[in-house]
Amino acid sequence: MTVRSFAIALIVAAATGMPAFAPADSGTVVEHAAARPPALLSETGLYADLTTRRIARDNLPFAPQYPLWTDGAAKSRWIHIPGGAAIDARDTDRWRFPVGTKLWKEFAFNGRIVETRFLWRATPQQWVFATYVWNDQQTDAALAPSTGLRSHYRIADGVIYAIPSDAECHACHNAADSPVLGFTALQLSDDRDPLAPHAQPLTETSLTIRRLNDLSLLEPRRTDLERNPPRIRARSPRERAALGYFVGNCSSCHNAEGPVAALGLNLQHAENDPNEPGLVTTVDVAGSYVTPGSTPETSRRVAPGSPESSAIVYRMSSRRPMSQMPPLGTAIVDTEALDLIRAWIAEDLPRQEHVRSRSR
User: Fold this and answer.
1) E strand map for the chain
2) What is the reported pLDDT for 20?
3) What is the pLDDT of residue 352?
4) Residue 34 — pLDDT band, cuts 50, 70, 90?
5) Per residue in 76-121, pLDDT tens?
C-alpha cells in the first residue's frame, strides 16, 4: 500500500465513521523519488544563523487569517519563492507554486519549539514532505521517522503531543487541490476577519496580497484582489468567522474534489462561486453521520437554532477516535471555536427550501 492510498483510507474512515485499516508498511515521504529531505532542519535553508534563530532574508513570514488549530500550539510560518520566480495566480482559487518553493511551519508549546514541518517543491512532479523534531538543547531538529512519534511531548495533564507520520501528513495535504495549505488568496487577504479564532496580528513584514504584489511574487500582478479583497460571503460577522474557521480547519478534506467529495460536504471557499459552499452543504442538510440522540431523518449537519443537535458541533466536541473532527492533529477540543460556532448556529439561520438526502 502506498502512503497516498493509506492517507485516503484515513480520510474516508474519519468522514464516514468506518474503521480504517493498518498499512502494510510505512512507506517514505515520497515514493520512488530522487529528491529527499535533508537530515537536519538547519540544512533546509530556513536559517541564516541557527544559533540566534535568525531567518534567512529570502524566507518571508506569513500568517493565514484562519489558522489551523493544533492544541494551542504557537506557530510561525515562512515561505521561500526562488529568485526571479513567482506564483501563478491566474486562477484566484488555485495558485500554482514554482519549482524550488519551500514552506516551513514551526510548532511551539510554552516557549519550547517542538517540531518544524517542511514542504518543498523539488521538481515539477514532486513535493517533498518532512517533519523535524527539535532536540532538548533547542540547537537543531532532526528528521522524524516516517511512522511519526506517538508520544513525544507533554502539553497538558494527560495530553501527549504526537509527531505525525508521513501518511497523516499526506492525508490532509493530498486531499486538497494543492498540497500547500494556508497560503491562498483568502488566507492572505488584506481584509482580515476580526473574529477569526486564534488569528495572529499582522506585522510590517507579513505577507498579504498587497505585499505579494509589491514584491512581484504574483504572476500576473493581482491588483484586483487589492481593490476587492477575498472575503467569506456571510450574513453576519459571526457567520463569516465560523465559515472561515471551517475553511482553515476542515476544507482540506471536505471539498468538492477530494477522496470524500461524494459525501457532499464542501467547506472550501471559492471566490468564483456566488454561493458559499459551507452554508449550502451544512445548514439544514442531512449527512452520513447521525448526531447521537437524533434519527437519520432528523439529524442535520447544522440544525438551525439548535447547536447541540448539530453533527458539526458534536464531532468538534468529541475526542473519541471514531467521531472526532478534525480526525488528525488534535487531542484537545478547540473551545474558542466551538463557542463561536454554537453562537452562529443559535442565530436565526434560514432553513434550506429542500433538505438534501443523506449521502451514502
Assistant:
1) 47-49, 54-55, 60-61, 74-80, 87-88, 102-109, 112-123, 126-134, 141-143, 149-156, 159-163, 218-219
2) 40
3) 56
4) low
5) 999 999 999 999 999 999 999 999 999 999 999 999 999 999 999 9
User: Would you say the C-alpha torsion 217, 101, 69, 322 has a positive or negative sign?
Assistant: positive
Mean pLDDT of 145-161: 89
One domain, residues 316 and 253: yes
Q: Are residues 202 and 241 in the same domain?
A: no
DSSP β-ladder status, 141-143 and 112-123:
unpaired
Single residue among 227, 255, 276 that ends a domain in this structure: 227
How far apart, in whole angstroms, are the C-alpha atoms of residue 294 and residue 297?
A: 8
Do residues 68 and 210 both lie within one domain? yes
Give the separation between CA 164 and CA 141, rounded to whole angstroms.
Answer: 15
C-alpha cell at 187: 488566507
The yes-or-no verdict on residue 207 having pLDDT over 50 is yes
pLDDT band with cut points at 50, 70 and 90 for residue 170: confident
Instruction: Give the pLDDT confidence score for residue 166 in this predicted structure.
Output: 87
User: Partners of 133 in the beta sheet?
Assistant: 115, 142
Last residue of a domain, one of 227, 257, 289: 227
- Mark whether 204 and 291 lie in a shared domain: no
pTM for the complete prediction? 0.88
Q: What is the Cα–Cα distance from 269 to 248, expressed in whole angstroms? A: 10
Residues 6+ apart with CB under 8 A from 34: 122, 123, 126
Q: Does one domain contain both 285 and 322?
A: yes
CA distance 128 to 35: 7
SS3 249: helix
Domain count for the chain:
2
Q: Which domain holds residue 144?
A: 25-227
113 plus 216 within the same structural domain = yes
Count of CB atoms within 10 A of residue 224's CB? 11
Residues in the chain: 360
In a domain, 35, yes or no: yes
State the CB neighbour count (10 A cutoff) for residue 52.
8
Q: Are residues 284 and 216 in the same domain?
A: no
19 occurs within a structural domain:
no
Residue given cell 473532527 in the structure block: 325
CA-CA distance, 184 to 204, in Å (whole number)? 19
